[in-house]
Design goal:
140 residues; mainly alpha; two-stranded antiparallel ribbon
Length: 140
Amino acid sequence: LAHLVIRELEDKCGYPASSLSERIYASRESQMNGFLIYTAVADKSGSLGGLMELAEPKSFLTVLDAAIKRAYWCTLDPVCSDHGGQGRDGLNRAACHGCTLVPDTSCDYGNVFLDRVLIKGDKAQGIPSLLDFIRESNCE
């Protein structure tokens, strides 16, 4: 999801993805997890103000919605989404340079363990979409 948001921010605020970085926060003990997308240096590639404006809740929800929608389609589908393993050591599933991968400077984890299916879901395989999973989790 963080990669999809980076790609969406790249389109919305003019920063190249290589100027943005992610930090993932995950805990087995806590039910709270998240990610931080940041830029270390404001430069001529974009405006830091534009990035900051998109962090406002209403604007960010628009970006998040667009990022989730971005997961549903790749220019390399059906090859990308049906692939059994691609990228470094075959550690990615539905993730390629056309849809999800970001420059190495943006990802501390080397662009591995990525799969758009975990966001968009796949009813044939019994995998709920991220939004369906969140809805089900909140109802319990």
